[in-house]
């Protein structure tokens, strides 16, 4: 085996050809040049597949004793290793950026999700260029790289079709191929997809059997086969990050029906069953204890009897969703096996990017956006009962109840977002690599963290951490390679110090001990009483004998608790955690959060064909008056279709023409729909169509009066009874002249919503006092630019 001659600490690797004889005539017998060889990593570098599921608690997967059947995870575990003390950050985007960089989430600006970014360095959502992602390092060392699925690392003001694309997977992220979605979640039946940086439509509809997870697996399988067919000697790095099992919990009905009746006795009983199974499997120590249910989480017996069938169905749908995604991960594993490369592939199967999600309210949700808008009360038990049969279907945007999230985190305390306790941060993880791991079916209990994945991959590939990438000096990775654990099951842990923080929930792990404090409750997104940071109550646990943090020793060891609290502050200062920011919904509004916005001012100009504009790419019209003006050319044959629409079936608004009549629809969470239609049709020719919404004021989510105009003349009016104050959707967009995704109004189908006339321009004006019902076409651009 030839030694590696490349100087790999500087990337790209400099071309340094050795001087040779230069002849005058290419036909001279002495004319010779060294062969052109493709760049490859050192000999023996494995293929790498990292699978990261979304929102799966430690006690959900059957591979770790849970009720959700995951045969692929079990298969990989039987041929590899289970890690039962692997940790994440308690939230999705922070975990993903930490995974992809080998650095703590605040170090790479991802203290929380991108949608709540601020201007503070630890919460900006901007990855410093001194911390290059793993995919870039691997690509510049000769790996083929591809990502399929969720990317939640793009700053929201960079998520428009104009970029910049530095934070996109196939832009500056190091992935040569990307197929997936940008943002925190997506409709599994009708996703907003990108191929590279280009928006694309799903290849089929839900009615035709489409589902996002299957599509992502199809793409991953096809890419792996093609890569090995064309570059058999070149290893690859595949990052497979499906949206499952983040809400909405969308899955074909037959997968949910497999669990019919399995959860009828509720979450308390399920937690006991899971705990017993975990002991039986040996994935938790024999002396581990099942932690108690906190008072904030209701018992199953306390839930209304009429709601229990809905609650049980929520969990059936979730279990089917998890089994469904595991099945499609299995298709990727089968492909590796069929190609004869499974033994030479380092597979990480990380079962969750944080603990189970408790963002679905105490009763669960038919549309989880209700809670994100502080409007969960609209989904009454009677409403939920009437939607039981639709859970998981294309007409739903559902989430399960807090009690199920707690049960899926068994035997640990708390859930996603709660970075203080292991229920929010401990995720079962499987590593499979027959070519590099001798033991099959082993268990590893050294403390490990998601920042350890990148250095492990580099060590397995024989690659150094780069000191320079694209001319920028790099800071060291903050994780610790896990490679030492692969064949040394009893080796002392090397990652023995780790801080945790999320929205003020914080903790510190040091040499077996953990000091933690829960600061706020994740399902209370609006309102609630939040203590001052100095009033938070800290707890102390001895992890050497207390796997699940069941026995608080704070009163017994105040000296050690104080030492660990001080150590947390030191680590927090080191990694940009300060200032601690416990705001949640307030940070959805850019001006309150202090982050950049793509557009400023009170006016925005659009043109036909623009679309797939996220909410952060459009001037916000929430909780204020606004108007939409469009100049159009209409044919004699009549006109129909969307002028502009924002959001979709589960919340949004649309200005459209219904069989010749100007129409405005406001959809509140898919629960209430308000429609105002003009009294007369628009005549053929060139016209300005205008909608004005006069907000009632007096707080958030109020209603308002609507007036419709043709060329400045009022032609209709009506009333919108309520509005959404915070967010319409995590995945639906704003489109001009058509509507992508699902339709705002039940009066049209998004797939046939294209405007049949010609749109010259559309202008959105918000919060202005003028009532110029007709805009001089020559002045429109000047007005729009001035208001920006």
Automatic annotation (TrEMBL):
The keyword Nucleotidyltransferase does not apply. Signal peptide: none annotated. InterPro entries: Alkaline_phosphatase_core_sf, ConA-like_dom_sf, Sulfatase, Sulfatase_CS, Sulfatase_N. Residues 46-462 form the Sulfatase N-terminal domain. Transmembrane segments: none annotated. It comes from the Bacteria. This is Arylsulfatase.
């Amino acid at each position: 085996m030839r030694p590696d001659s490349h100087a790999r600490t500087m990337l790209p690797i400099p071309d340094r050809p050795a001087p040779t004889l230069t002849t005058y005539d290419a036909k001279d017998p002495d004319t010779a040049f060294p062969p052109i060889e493709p760049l490859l990593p050192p000999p023996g570098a494995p293929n790498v597949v990292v699978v990261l599921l979304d929102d799966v608690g430690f006690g959900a997967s059957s591979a770790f004793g849970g009720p959700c059947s995951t045969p692929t995870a079990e298969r990989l575990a039987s041929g590899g290793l289970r890690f039962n003390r692997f940790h994440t950050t308690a939230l999705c985007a922070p975990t993903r950026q930490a995974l992809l960089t080998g650095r703590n989430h605040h170090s790479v600006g991802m203290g929380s999700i991108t949608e709540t970014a601020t201007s503070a360095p630890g919460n900006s959502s901007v990855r410093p260029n001194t911390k290059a992602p793993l995919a870039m390092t691997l690509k510049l060392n000769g790996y083929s790289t591809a990502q399929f699925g969720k990317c939640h690392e793009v700053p929201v003001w960079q998520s428009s079709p104009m970029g910049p694309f530095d934070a996109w997977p196939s832009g500056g992220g190091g992935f040569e191929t990307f197929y997936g979605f940008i943002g925190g979640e997506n409709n599994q039946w009708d996703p907003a997809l990108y191929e590279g940086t280009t928006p694309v439509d799903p290849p089929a509809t839900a009615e035709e059997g489409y589902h996002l997870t299957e599509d992502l697996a199809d793409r991953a399988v096809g890419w792996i086969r093609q890569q090995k067919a064309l570059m058999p000697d070149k290893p690859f790095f595949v990052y497979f990050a499906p949206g499952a099992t983040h809400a909405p919990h969308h899955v074909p009905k037959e997968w949910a029906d497999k669990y019919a009746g399995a959860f009828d006795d509720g979450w308390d009983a399920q937690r006991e069953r899971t705990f017993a199974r975990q002991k039986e499997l040996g994935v938790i120590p024999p002396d581990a204890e099942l932690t108690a249910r906190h008072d904030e989480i209701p018992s199953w017996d306390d839930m209304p009897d009429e709601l229990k069938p809905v609650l049980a169905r929520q969990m059936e749908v979730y279990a089917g969703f998890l089994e469904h995604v595991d099945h499609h991960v299995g298709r990727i594993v089968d492909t590796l096996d069929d190609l004869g490369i499974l033994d030479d592939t380092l597979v990480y199967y990380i079962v969750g990017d944080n603990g189970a999600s408790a963002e679905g309210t105490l009763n669960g949700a038919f549309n989880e956006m209700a809670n994100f808008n502080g409007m969960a009360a609209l989904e009454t038990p009677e409403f939920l009962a009437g939607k039981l049969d639709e859970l998981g279907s294309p007409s739903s945007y559902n989430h399960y109840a807090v009690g199920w999230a707690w049960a899926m985190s068994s035997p640990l305390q708390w859930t996603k977002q709660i970075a203080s306790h292991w229920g929010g941060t401990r995720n079962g993880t499987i590593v499979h690599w027959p070519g590099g791991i001798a033991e099959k079916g082993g268990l590893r209990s050294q403390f490990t963290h998601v920042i350890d994945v990148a250095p492990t991959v580099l060590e397995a590939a024989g690659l150094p951490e780069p000191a320079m990438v694209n001319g920028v000096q790099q800071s060291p990775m903050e994780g610790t390679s896990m490679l030492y654990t692969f064949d040394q099951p009893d080796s002392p842990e090397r990652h023995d110090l780790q801080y945790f923080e999320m929205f003020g929930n914080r903790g510190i792990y040091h040499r077996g001990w953990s000091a933690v404090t829960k600061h706020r409750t994740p399902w209370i997104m609006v309102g609630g009483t939040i203590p001052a940071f100095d009033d938070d109550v800290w707890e102390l646990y001895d992890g050497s004998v207390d796997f699940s943090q069941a026995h608080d020793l704070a009163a017994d060891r105040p000296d050690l608790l104080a030492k660990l609290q001080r150590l947390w502050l030191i680590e927090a200062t080191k990694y940009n955690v300060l200032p601690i920011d416990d705001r949640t919904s307030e940070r959805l509004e850019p001006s309150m959060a202090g982050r950049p916005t793509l557009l400023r001012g009170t006016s925005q100009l659009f043109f036909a064909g623009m679309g797939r504009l996220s909410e952060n790419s459009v001037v916000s019209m929430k909780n204020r008056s606004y108007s939409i003006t469009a100049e159009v050319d209409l044919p004699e044959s009549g006109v129909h279709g969307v002028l502009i629409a924002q959001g979709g079936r589960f919340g949004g608004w649309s200005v459209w023409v219904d069989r010749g009549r100007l129409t405005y629809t406001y959809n509140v969470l898919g629960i209430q729909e308000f429609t105002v239609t003009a009294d007369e049709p628009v005549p053929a020719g060139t016209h300005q169509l205008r909608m004005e919404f006069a907000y009632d004021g007096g707080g958030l989510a109020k209603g308002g009066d609507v007036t419709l105009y043709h060329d400045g003349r009022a032609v209709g009016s009506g009333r919108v009874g309520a509005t959404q104050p915070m967010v319409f959707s995590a995945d639906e967009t704003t489109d001009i002249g058509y509507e992508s995704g699902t339709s705002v109004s039940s009066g049209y189908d998004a797939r046939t919503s294209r405007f049949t006339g010609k749109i010259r321009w559309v202008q959105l004006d918000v919060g202005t006092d003028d009532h110029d019902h007709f805009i001089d076409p020559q002045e429109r651009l000047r007005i729009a630019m001035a208001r920006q």
